[in-house]
Amino acid sequence: MTTTFITGANKSLGYETARRLVLAGHTVLVGARDPERGRAAAEALGARFVQIDVTDDASVAAAAADVLAHEGVVDVLVNNAGVNAPHVPVEQLSAADLSAVLDVNVVGAVRVFHAFLPLLRRSGSPVVVNVSSGMGSFAATHDPERVESSVVSPFYTASKAALTMLTTQYARAFPDIKVNAADPGYTATDFNGHSGPQTVTEGTDAIVELASIGADGPTGAFRDRHGVAPW
């Protein structure tokens, strides 16, 4: 049985990823900051709730200790938790706003990875999926045919570019772990006021694919639902 821990799993892409992996036979751990929402999501999914705030070292350490005590291993870690900067003109954004975005989208992924590293190393075939975005792709944001080129969101895009590069570096640094990044694509979620043309199921295709790879699967890859994504 594959044990999978997903951060930010109480709604949207995280919830749909959890739902699909439960159906695929994974033992899914729903990581969420809000206990009420997290427990409700886990109960609806047939999963177990683990409270985690990816911006808090003590919370992340407690989550890892909880999983060690109950499951004893993590085969798949999905770093899904993410935030955007306030929707205001760019000149009104501050360094503090950038720090807040990076603390969840990049530093949070690092916190969780390192806290869960001993649990991953208990697995025979450990996998990490970082939920990145085409918004962090130089190719996508410079292609006039793609929607990413029409959006101005400097802090979110920078955080996702950093997360994708972090993925490639961790894949090299940890050859015993498959570390990949997924681009969900423009998906209808709370993040964009449900304006995206893709369903959450379509948006989780790449995440689920990468969460389901075996020992011979890729590492250091960036994929969307159509295959290898441009960087």
Account of the protein in words:
With 231 residues, the chain is an alpha/beta fold. It is built from nine helices and eight strands. It has an eight-stranded mixed beta sheet, sandwiched between helices. It starts with a strand and ends with a strand. The mean pLDDT is 95.
**What spatial form do the alpha-carbon principal axes imply?**
globular
Class computed from helices, strands and strand pairing: alpha/beta
User: Could you tell me the radius of gyration in angstroms?
Assistant: 16 Å
Neighbour order of strands in the largest sheet: 3-2-1-4-5-6-7-8
Distance between the termini: 34 Å
**Would you count the extended β strands for me?**
8
Average pLDDT, rounded to a whole number, is 95
Q: Major beta sheet, specifics?
A: 8 strands, mixed
Low-confidence stretches: none
Regarding quaternary structure, what we see is: single chain
Please estimate the helix content: 40-55%
The number of distinct helices, counting runs of at least 4 residues, comes to: 9
Report the order of strands and helices. Answer: EHEHEHEHHEHHEHHEE
Assess the beta-strand content as a share of residues. 5-15%
